[in-house]
Amino acid sequence: SVYLDHNATTAPAPEAVAAMLHALEVAWANPSSTHEPGQQARRLLAEARSRVATFLGCQPSELVFTSGATEANHTAVHAALAATRGIGRQRLVLSSVEHPGLMALAARLEAEGVPVTRLPVDADGRVDLAAAREAIGADVALVSVMGANNETGVLMPVAELAELAHAAGARMHVDATQLAGKAALDFAALGADLMSVSAHKLHGPKGVGALVVRKGFALAPLLAGRQERHRRGGTENLPGIAGFAAACDRAAATPAADIERIAALRDRLEASCATLPGVQVYGRRVARVANTCCLRFGTLDAELVLGRLERADVVASSGAACAAGGTQPSHVLLAMGEPSAHARAALRFSLGRDSTDAHVQQALAAVHAAVAPLLQDAVAAAC
Ligand code: PMP
Q: Which residue from 149, 179, 81 is spatially nearest to 286, judged by alpha carbons?
């Protein structure tokens, strides 16, 4: 099928699969063991760490491997709150369009008494900097805002937010899960103290990711133990980490022109959909990652449209995969000020390295043959 759901996950690259098999079959010993097989695994871990660090623009010692971005996000929040508990600086500031896992954590902490501020976004889905300036005061422990939104692809002003956070004495965390592999990513240049990434969004395996922790921040672990310099306990997922490193190598070796190719495909898909009556594209007026197109076909229910597309062998998703299938409209679209009838209609095409001209052609053929007639019926009924 034509897979247009790369923001949900990507197919593992052959290089990543090969690296994982090698780690499973050959370097399967425990990297903490002092015997030779253990030391062989330890060398592989160190080598993978330095390759991932190079890709992310951080020092190898700043990298903590985790089970993915959800764990990295949780670790960042817990560690930042723990670091300032003694001085009563406990407020968590995040955007109102963060990943559902982080939104859920914020709600849980709030129920436990942690003050939480959710920053509004504008109609294009960008965090409102004026509101951020108001909210980020002397009681803030952490500002956590994603680099790019998973539903709309909209880029967030994270460098400006990091400046505001630091001016107030707070720390800055960036969930860069949807940036890695889609745009240049350089932790050192980002200005953040903490950054989350996940391997499976860039053709690596699921269940592995990383939290980058700026040198000098003594990170309290979420999972206590000796591994990862006492920052994340548990025997390292070496097959996953090796696959992650191979995926990073591949992403680093992909020419910038390929991002432009993906952007051109996305723009073509979007422009052709936009010729239909009642189509609204989200985030089109602001900077976005190259691969993402979030739009609605009038007020046609996203699930109805997706069903029609899937019958034509084209798969996409409504909002976040993590929220898909639920009856709740996307919190991202609602935060952008959309009424729930629009939010329920929003769907997402997300392209990837393996997307081709032919895929976009097939998707457009499906849209024009299977979705456009529904839209015309809806317009006629409204007249
Ligand atoms: N943050 C963002 C922005 C995401 O898009 C995702 C994946 N949907 C996550 C976090 C969670 O990543 P993982 O699946 O590795 O836990």
A: 149
Boundary (domain end) residue, out of 253, 283, 312: 253
CA distance 15 to 46: 18
As a whole number of angstroms, the longest Cα–Cα distance in the chain is 78
> What is the count of structural domains for the chain?
2
Q: Do residues 320 and 330 touch, judged by C-beta distance below 8 A? A: yes
Predicted local confidence at residue 327, as pLDDT: 62
Mark 279-314 as b/e (b = at least 16 C-beta within 10 Å): bbebbbebebbbbbbbbbbbebbbeebbebbeebeb
Which residue, of 253, 270, 293, is where some domain finishes? Answer: 253
Residue 175 in contact with ligand 1 by CB distance below 6 A: yes
DSSP string for residues in 266-332: HHHHHHHHTTSTTEEEETTTS-B-TTEEEEEETT--HHHHHHHHHHTTEE-BSS-TTTTTSSSPPHH
200 CA: nearest ligand 1 atom: 15
The side-by-side arrangement of strands in the sheet containing 346-350 is: 279-282, 292-297, 346-350
ipTM over 0.85: yes
- 231-259 residue pLDDT tens: 999 999 999 999 999 999 999 999 889 99
CATH number, domain containing residue 154? 3.40.640.10
Place of tokens 């409209």: 329
Q: Is the distance from the beta carbon of residue 146 to the nearest atom of ligand 1 less than 6 Å?
A: yes
pTM above 0.95, yes or no: yes
Q: Tell which atom from ligand 1 comes closest to the C-alpha of 209.
A: 15
The pLDDT of residue 75:
98
96 lines ligand 1 (CB under 6 A): no
Pocket test for ligand 1, best of 64, 73, 99, 294 (most atoms within 8 A of CB): 99
pLDDT along the chain (383 residues), means of 10: 98 98 98 98 98 98 98 98 95 98 98 98 98 98 98 98 98 98 93 98 98 97 98 98 98 93 98 97 97 97 96 89 64 97 96 97 97 85 67
Q: Which domain holds residue 50?
A: 14-253
- Check whether residue 369 and residue 263 sit in a common domain: yes
Both 71 and 179 in one domain: the answer is yes
Asked if 322 is an active-site residue, the reply is yes
